[in-house]
Amino acid sequence: MLTDPIADMITRIRNGAQASKESVDIPASKMKLNIADILMKEGYIKGYKVIDDGKQGLLRVNLKYFNSRHVITGIERVSKPGRRIYKGAGEIQPVRKGLGISIVSTSKGVMTDHKAKADNVGGEVLIRVW
After folding, report:
1. How far apart are CA 74 and CA 129, in angstroms?
2. C-beta atoms surrounding 110 within 10 Å
3. Which residues on neighbouring strands pair with residue 58, listed in sequence order?
4. Calpha distance 8→67 (Å, rounded)
5. Quick one: DSSP state of residue 55?
6. Does residue 18 contact residue 92 with C-beta atoms inside 8 Å?
7. Where are the beta strands (DSSP E) in 42-93?
8. What mean pLDDT do residues 64-85 have?
9. How far apart are CA 94 and CA 91, in angstroms?
């Protein structure tokens, strides 16, 4: 049993990138699918697909490289099970002066910090990516 499945997801992505893997397999969930969808739309990963394994399924994330370097230079978990971090729409800070994104879980769903500010909603800051 994992105590923090989102931290496990970003650790697998980080480790796969350091090992120059083409893809990494992660146990699937709706939250992880939403995060992978945002990472794909923002250009941090090539894509993803769900593989049925008879249980909860596997999320296969295809990593993206540019000049043999991983596109994600940094990824970190912000809100943890022991300490949740909530921000209002006006309190969400840009990542690396706008060069990165934050993924926020709001009442309107999981979205980037830019979309959360545009929709004027706050929520739990899950991940920071740059």
Report:
1. 6
2. 22
3. 27, 51
4. 27
5. S
6. no
7. 45-51, 58-63, 65-66, 69-70, 75-77, 86-87
8. 95
9. 10
